[in-house]
């Protein structure tokens, strides 16, 4: 009995962790991610894209960004310095950083700083309004990032190339009228953009589908249990009505709680469950996505998503293993009880 309770606790803990990871991935991958493999976008190219989008009936919102590792940032007051990854933004920062931080698009005198970097430079994370020096420029800290460490976030300039400025990535925001199958091809074609898409949307959908495994299994178990009780109560109309009401309540609760996850995973949910070719294609796409994410040089944003994805896969494995062990334990206790009863 105690073993079963412990297994249930482990399963629930892993499911809580899986849910948190799925939420983080969905928040961070609400945009499409693209990478320019031929170099950086120039300020002139970005301005041209912005002007072209302003003329469209349904303009797309996007942010061009990039990361340069191994940069030094100094605290002139305490004569301290720290090594950081400089994250350059040109466009709305909310499309790249999921935290609710404050850095205006045109603010080239301000910056965001990671909590760990703030501790190294100032010995505290309460550093809003303090000054740091980067590439000979004095920057005012507007806010502190808590989910990304050892990073300095600052705005790039489209008019002139600032020292250390890197712009080789693009995040494209999904508008309200665009559903899951949208891949941003129209935006890339009309702006003559040659970029490779990073397969985060598929990873997000797979994690969301994994999030349904445990509650769907619970619903299936409850359905089987109530079905057996219903078959045993055929001659008891009141009992049958109660069982049907319980089953309907379970279905309604399940749908209300997990319908948003269903809508997220609609792209990878086949119309016919017997279409094995579909699952073969999906498995191939997922394998390619994982291979791409494994091989690519990761920015701090990529590392954050990749870490959450890896943790979700481990949580899913532990959940399935825990369920299997729990079923084996329950069967063992049932067999032991039947043996004792026969004696």
List its salient traits.
6-stranded mixed barrel; 343 residues; alpha+beta; elongated; 9 strands
Instruction: Give the beta-strand count.
Output: 9
Radius of gyration: 26 Å
Number of separate helices = 9
Oligomer kind: single chain
Measured by DSSP, the beta-strand proportion falls in: 15-25%
- If strands are numbered along the chain, what order do they take across the biggest sheet? 2-3-7-4-6-5
Task: State the end-to-end distance.
Answer: 22 Å
Number of domains: 2
| Helix fraction bin | 40-55%
| Overall average residue pLDDT | 79
The biggest beta sheet, please?
Answer: 6 strands, mixed, barrel
User: Any low-confidence stretches, pLDDT <50, length ≥5?
Assistant: none
Order of helices and strands: HEHEEEHEEEEHEHHHHH
What global shape is seen? elongated
The structure class reads: alpha+beta
